[in-house]
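Reagents: none. Just compute today. Vitellogenin.
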Amino acid sequence: IRGSLKYEFATEILQTPIHLMKISDAPAQIIEILKHLVANNVDMVHEDAPLKFVQLIQLPRVSTLENIEAIWAQFKNEPVHRRWLLDALPSVGTPVIVKFIKEKFLAGELTLPEFIQALVVALQMVTADLETMQLTASLAMHEKISTIPALREVVMLGYGSMIARHCVAVPTCSSELLKPIHDIAAEATSKNDIPEITLALKVLGNAGHPASLKPIMKLLPGLRTAATSLPLRVQVDAILALRNIAKKEPKLVQPVALQLVLDRALHPEVRMVACIVLFEAKPSVALVSSLAGALKTETNMHVVSFAYSHIKSLTRITAPDMAAVAGAANVAIKLMSRKLDRLSYRFSRALQLDFYHTSLMVGAAGSAYMINDAATII
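Predicted 3D structure written out:
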């Protein structure tokens, strides 16, 4: 609202920021543009190809499923036309397109590479509403998808990301959306199905819903006896699944992460990964100081080096949303021995950097975690 003038933008049709088209007969216009792209982009890209391609994305947004199926039936056996359609349709971003891609794959009209490429883009572009999520959930549970592990993983992870996007738009999103994943995690745990447990944890991590904290905690080492017997990789995945939850409900994750970091009975890699999650939960001065105090008597130098280097790198962070964490890190670093600066690179380390140029309004941020004990870099 500016002054007394209120602007309202329609949401029923997605709009691309281009010169608006006059749409009279969408199916006919789609065919016309498709033929133009095929005819004029053989030897070299035509100068109007980008605009025409964007129009090829915009027009299906006002088309029905029947219209799109009719166009597909007309051109599916022509390789060049087929390629242009499969490049454009996933970017349309409507539930109709997700349904179209699903039906064509199940009918055997799309090859596996075509389906994966189209689905990955479509799940990222589509509006994350209840209709689309139900469609994606049904696709993930379909028996044909279940027989192809790599494809099922793509669909499941896409479903988790879609829940996260939906919850951003609707903060009161229901935890019922995650019930199928919680059930999968519970069943996989009872059967000790490691690949299925790992996949469920990654989906829950993508979703980042606070309701998933309890199922994830059942798989955290140290907090549950059964979880300690799980492979190290699963324990790490369980901790990493807390990262997105920590961004929404840091107070719930902070004590759990701190407990894992301080538990000397756990594998060093597990403790270092918990340290990553702890600082992503933006801990208070008291929590960081408690960690610094505990590290004075820590015997594992990998954990000490990792935590110290992480805290020290946070003291240099200038991002506004990390100001409180940077302040806490500055307090904690004064409680720790400066001798830790001289630890060699054979010990694990963490590094976080950020940069912002005010006049250019350009910035960048990055992090690197080197866990030498496991000979891996996260």
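The chain has 20 helices and three strands.
Action item: order primers for follow-up constructs.
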